[in-house]
Amino acid sequence: MKVLEQLYEGKAKRVYATDRPDVVMVAYKDDATAFNGLKKGTITGKGAINNRMTNFLMKMLEKNGVPTHFIEEISSRETLVKKVSIIPLEVIVRNVAAGSLSKRLGLTEGTKLRRTVLEFCYKNDELGDPMVNEYHIAAMGWATAEQMQQIVSMALKVDEILTLYFKGVGVDLIDFKLEFGLTADGELVLADEISPDTCRFWDAETHEKLDKDRFRRDLGGVEEAYQEMSRRIMGE
Ligand code: TMP
Ligand code: ASP
Fold first, then answer.
1. N or C: at which end does the chain have fewer Cβ atoms within 10 angstroms?
2. What's the pLDDT tens digit per position in 68-111?
3. Is residue 102 in contact with ligand 1, taking CB distance under 6 Å?
4. The pTM is what?
5. Ligand 1 lined by 176 (C-beta under 6 Å)
6. What is the reported pLDDT for 236?
7. Which atom of ligand 1 is nearest to the CA of 98?
């Protein structure tokens, strides 16, 4: 497989064409941003950790019946994935109140939710990823009703599998963000990444934050938190 020109540069990853029209290569960067790109920095080693953690978790989800874009890890920072057209939604899954939900509803961070909460945001940096509901999504044609049913059931299944898995390594999965894409044959698959950039991980005993909130909130120990999650999941 030959890697060709860069197709796209995002805040945390670059995407390259390959000589196979249905395959692209993702390269993870150490760059970190928060608050819609207002805060910028570097988290040394993050690209490699996020690449390997995402691939580990995507493979686990595949084994449990969740279709993903993952094909093959080709280096510590680079992975081949199916080329998809991304559905322009951030699908947020929440088990415990934190972050913007705590702010919006005045809930103490750490308040257990009676049931899993799903939220949808329109992926648009200029607009600051505004929250939308299924009426907006249908009205704008971002996804069909059938695709939304699949997205909801896949998101809940991912939550069940990941929550159980993380419990086993002493981590509470507080909330996370997923993205979905459509392959050339119209298959809906889980895309993007699953990493400390896109999840809130709290140590189950001490409630210490082991994710990007350490960067967003200037808590220190950012690299150490990513390394700790890498150790717990991949033993390194
Ligand atoms: P929030 O509480 O800030 O809405 O974040 C909810 C979850 O989504 C949290 O695990 C972090 C993740 N997230 C992203 O992956 N990308 C984003 O741009 C934002 C705002 C949140
Ligand atoms: N990555 C997002 C941004 O820079 C936000 C975040 O993860 O907090 O806007």
1. C
2. 999 999 999 999 999 999 999 999 999 999 999 999 999 999 99
3. no
4. 0.98
5. yes
6. 77
7. 2
